[in-house]
Specification:
By secondary structure, the chain is mainly α. The protein is built from six helices and no strands. α4 runs antiparallel to α6.
């Protein structure tokens, strides 16, 4: 198995844990407060991780484009988290997590149109199954 696939699988497992653990943490507080606390922890752990993972030489390779695109990614992540926590506070994790994972379909479409990635029949079928699953579960 390629290393990046293993990383993606581990990411998937932690992302699944994140939703359930966050729902438990929102008991008695607002989604906004929960998101704020979570984000402080994320910031701290990413900062500590970066001390060990980033060599000083990497800073010289940064460009304005890096800052622009990564900054925009930070903005879209923030907006995603805000609305995810608003949904998580009142809704069912199983439904919210599935709808949120519909972002895979959005990412596939953007990868095709913006990044010019090649689409396969397997990708189209997988995305169609995800959309069907989202519609089935969201309908209840």
């Amino acid at each position: 198995m390629k290393t990046w696939i293993a990383y993606a699988i581990v990411s998937m497992i932690f992302a699944g844990l994140t939703s359930v653990i966050a729902k438990l943490g929102l008991s008695g507080i607002s989604g906004e407060m929960g998101l704020t606390i979570r984000t402080c922890f994320v910031f701290f752990f990413v900062l500590v991780f970066s001390v060990f993972a980033i060599s000083p030489a990497q800073f010289s390779g940064l460009s304005r484009a890096n800052f622009l695109w990564l900054g925009l990614s930070g903005v879209t992540t923030t907006l995603s988290w805000i609305f995810y926590y608003k949904a998580l506070k009142d809704g069912e994790v199983s439904t919210i997590a599935l709808i949120d994972k519909g972002s895979v379909v959005v990412a596939i479409l953007l990868a095709i149109f913006i990044l010019k990635e090649q689409i396969t029949v397997k990708t189209v079928l997988g995305a169609a199954c995800m959309v069907a699953g989202i519609l089935i579960i969201a309908k209840k």
